[in-house]
Design a protein that fits this description.
This protein is of the alpha+beta class. The chain has 39 helices and 16 strands. The chain has an eight-stranded antiparallel sheet with strand order 9-10-12-11-15-16-14-13, sandwiched between helices. A four-stranded mixed sheet has the order 3-2-1-4. A hairpin with a 4-residue loop joins strand 11 and strand 12.
């Protein structure tokens, strides 16, 4: 401390540190300098205290402050330690030291203990022990610091508390890491937690604590080379600077790295690219590499602490398990024949064990040489298929990716593995996503999804699926359609790998069409036989349909929960089932379809015989929409007829009560049942056909915080209309029965002028409780397609999600004289992609160019409000 430094001047330094944080927080030595500023304040403040308060006491920094890891938003944790008893004057000293910091709004944590208190708490609570392992004397009595450090030695703790031991401490850290991983996610997330996530700063703390407890040094002796230690130091520095930049920009203590701040953080850290996305991509790639290194270093130290004393066990030719990690028994054999490097990844895929630190180092060293040897040997595609079909294929694949082995075999993948899509939709960069997709394919091929197991019978060879999984996204980052580009790039790669021509044909098909079913399940009217037949003709065989179905599920589920949930899975399965039926029986427009409809009409008559009046059933069947008849089973049709007959009775009763021909206005009856996905419901709503009915339904759902996922509209003659909805109840805590009862009377109120949906929705949007928009702004985009369906004009609206957006879209379509027959609603992050199949009230498609242009302008304006 400078001789003339006072507590006031030190406090002024701290104040300036906060004010100048934006320009200095990302400097490599910022955290250490920040800790030094706080040290000088405590040293000066203690020196200014009255003599009777100053001694004998130790002022110690603990936790992150003890490690010298202060960020702009860090807590300052200090401990006042006395040798024997805590004097009454201790509280006065606390006030003297901390009140100026509290007045400056610093977040200060403190404790007052004796040496014995510290040791007893450390023996009882591992979290206290980890905090004290990092303690650092700031000021005060040095002898107390020495006494405390000696009392915290493992042998002293074991003597005080026989149940404590270094092994038990290591086990506690392992459990704590497992819980953190479950909470904060896996490696290589696009928005990682840089403190608590896998490979975050907390993993470095774990490795340090274990080394201190087992060897009395901050680094485990003999494990890391000089190069390793330099790489770990650089990785720690990157994470620390990133955390400082995040706290500076966000002005909060959070540690999860949001996508929208990454370009700015990258700029603060010195990534110069003028393109924000490329700048953030380079930064994130380096961050992932650093976090992967830290995670593996922590795992290596943890294994040695927990299993270092265990004898080695054989694990296969030239393989052993040593300290619970896979290792080579003879490194010379691998160097002499580098293709044997692959054996350790094959064993890892089967057993799920980590690679030892030396084996990891050898893999990095031999990656290129081993790849050249493997590419010249026969049977590589089959060997890769076996490797990636193991129960721990994702772990082995990630290791191969990170150590450069997979990239050496497929340089086209290596060139794109860092590619990031900043859409809050993909959870991983391209490389980790690719590995996850292949591993998910292996799980599906083992039959882990009961809804998809029946497709396994049509798949005679898994090699095309695994190879396509490795190659499906290699076209990303190139001009044009990435799937088509990827298929073109696949040919030379497959020839280099030694794949047969039949396998190569299948792989090219899967790569080019890997998004086909996923997108079609969202965009097709599944009752449009022509559109389905076009799709079936493109796929051609049940075998390829089976492969494509599994591939679509694997790719979507590897992308993240916003791409794959119960509803998305149900749509995919329904589409695949219809295509399978079509590939078996031919197009629905042939006589087979007519016979299906006739058979279903007869079955409906039989099922409804004792439940409904025959004249009512015949009247409805005469007006039955063929699309409806082909899509719905006789049992479901009868349930809908029961609902429609109930509607007619309620309308008749209401007409007697309401004169003037308005008795049917707003009358609505509802039937509900659980949906196929969690927190979803299927709702059938019957009402007399009337202007504004669908608009009112969507507006009421918005008011009740019910998300519409899918909607179909049918008419049955006699003025009867039926709307079939699939809705999500995730945003409301009310029971479904109450929700749909509210829907029923709210629709009636809206259609009879007693409820202003426009006013109520605007009121709800302006409420302080309304969800606030997040993520980047999105410009609305509206596309009108008259070629996608033979029956309808398809309107595609993509816009930033907000309360009541669906209502605004449907209301605009209604005002333009268009009736919605089918709506498909997709929300990805905060962006919606809504499809509406529409016709005029006269049953015509919207083909006039001027009216199309007017519709596009109206919907764009409504979506952007």
């Amino acid at each position: 401390m400078p001789r003339d430094q006072t507590a006031s001047s030190a406090l002024a330094d701290l104040r300036r540190r906060r004010e100048e944080a934006s320009s200095s927080a990302c400097q490599p030595d910022y955290s250490a300098r920040a800790a030094g500023f706080v040290d000088r304040y405590f040293q000066a403040r203690l020196a200014e205290a009255p003599a009777f308060l100053r001694s004998p006491v130790l002022i110690a920094a603990v936790g992150g402050y003890g490690r010298g890891e202060l960020t702009l938003a860090s807590d300052v944790d200090v401990l006042l330690v006395y040798a024997q008893d805590i004097p009454a004057k201790a509280e006065d000293l606390v006030s003297h030291l901390l009140h100026p910091l509290w007045d400056e709004k610093f977040r200060v944590g403190h404790g007052v203990r004796t040496v014995r208190d510290c040791v007893e708490l450390a023996a009882q609570d591992a979290r206290v022990y980890t905090s004290l392992l990092d303690f650092r004397r700031i000021a005060g009595d040095a002898s107390i610091a020495s006494t405390l450090r000696e009392a915290l030695e493992p042998r002293e703790l074991e003597a005080l508390a026989p149940e404590w031991s270094p092994i038990r401490f290591a086990q506690w850290l392992q459990q704590e890491r497992t819980e953190r991983t479950a909470r904060f996610g896996e490696l290589a997330l696009l928005s990682p937690d840089i403190k608590n996530g896998p490979g975050g700063l907390r993993d470095l703390h774990h490795a340090r604590w274990l080394a201190l407890v087992f060897h009395g040094a901050p680094v485990w002796p003999g494990l890391f080379t000089d190069r390793n230690r330099e790489e770990l130091r650089a990785s720690e520095e990157l994470l620390s600077r990133c955390r400082n930049a995040l706290h500076c920009l966000a002005r909060s203590a959070g540690d999860e790295l949001p996508l929208d701040l990454q370009p700015e953080i990258a700029l603060l850290l010195g990534y110069p690219d003028d393109n924000p996305a490329r700048r953030a991509e380079s930064f994130l790639a380096d961050l992932h590499q650093s976090m992967a290194l830290i995670r593996r270093a922590q795992a290596a130290v943890s294994r040695l602490a927990l299993h270092g004393a265990e004898p080695a066990q054989p694990a296969g030719p030239n393989l052993i398990v040593k300290a619970n990690a896979l290792d080579f028994e003879d490194y010379g054999q691998v160097r002499g024949n580098p293709q044997n490097l692959l054996t350790i990844f094959e064993a890892q895929s089967r057993r799920g064990l980590d690679l030892s630190w030396p084996a990891r180092t050898l893999a990095r060293e031999l990656a290129q040489t081993a790849a050249q040897t493997l590419l010249s040997s026969p049977g590589l595609p089959r060997r890769l298929t076996r490797l990636f079909s193991g129960p721990h294929a994702e772990k082995a694949g990630r290791e191969m990716l990170d150590f450069g082995v997979l990239g050496a075999l497929i340089p086209e993948l290596e060139a794109r593995r860092r590619l990031v899509q900043f859409d809050d939709f993909h959870l991983h960069p391209l490389g980790p996503h690719t590995v996850k997709t292949v591993a998910r394919l292996a799980e599906l091929l083992r039959g882990d999804d009961s809804g998809l197991t029946r497709w396994l019978a049509d798949i005679d060879d898994t090699e095309p699926l695994i190879l396509a999984g490795l190659l499906h996204d290699i076209g990303k980052g190139q001009p044009g359609d990435h799937a088509r580009t990827g298929a073109e790039m696949s040919g030379p790669i497959l020839e280099r790998l030694g794949a047969s021509e039949n396998v190569a044909d299948d792989v090219r098909f899967l790569v080019e069409n890997h998004l086909l079913l996923f997108e079609a399940s969202r965009t097709l009217d599944l009752s449009d036989e022509t559109a389905l037949w076009r799709l079936a003709a493109r796929i051609r065989t049940r075998r390829r349909l089976a492969m494509l179905t599994l591939f679509s599920a694997a790719d979507a589920s590897a992308t993240g929960p916003r791409a794959w949930d119960g509803w998305t899975a149900a749509l995919l399965r329904e589409l695949a089932d219809k295509l399978a039926n079509m590939l078996t029986h031919g197009p629905l427009a042939d006589p087979y379809a007519a016979s299906v409809i006739l058979a279903r009409r007869d079955k409906v008559r039989s099922l409804a015989k004792d439940r409904l009046p025959p004249h009512f059933v015949e009247g409805v069947l005469d007006a039955l929409d063929p699309r409806y008849a082909l899509v719905h089973s006789p049992q479901d049709i009868v349930k809908d007829l029961v609902l429609l007959e109930r509607l007619e009775k309620e309308v008749e009763q209401n007409r007697r009560r309401t004169p003037g021909g308005r008795g049917e206005r707003g009358v609505c009856v509802v039937r509900t049942e659980p949906g196929v996905a969690d927190r979803t419901h299927r709702a059938a709503l019957a009402a007399m056909e009337q202007p504004g009915l669908f608009t009112a339904l969507t507006g009421v759902f918005s008011l009740l915080s019910v998300d519409v996922l899918d909607a179909c509209a049918y008419t049955f003659g006699r003025g009867l209309a039926l709307y079939l909805f699939t809705v999500s109840m995730a945003q409301t805590q009310l029971p479904p029965e109450e929700i749909f009862e509210r829907v029923r009377y709210s629709v009636r109120a809206a259609l009879t002028g007693k409820l202003s949906l426009d006013f109520r929705i605007k009121e709800k949007r302006s409420s302080p409780l309304a969800p606030k928009p997040s993520g980047p702004a999105v410009s609305p985009e509206v596309l009108v397609d008259n070629g996608a369906s033979d029956f309808f004009t398809v309107v595609d609206v993509r816009a930033k999600d907000r309360l009541g957006l669906l209502y605004d879209m449907v209301n605009t379509l209604s005002q333009m004289g268009l009736k919605v027959h089918l709506a498909r609603i997709t929300t990805r992050a905060d962006v919606v992609a809504d499809l509406f199949f529409v016709r005029s009230y006269l049953g015509e498609k919207l083909e006039d160019p001027e009216r199309v242009e007017t519709l596009v302008r109206a919907l764009t304006r409504a979506a952007g409000e």
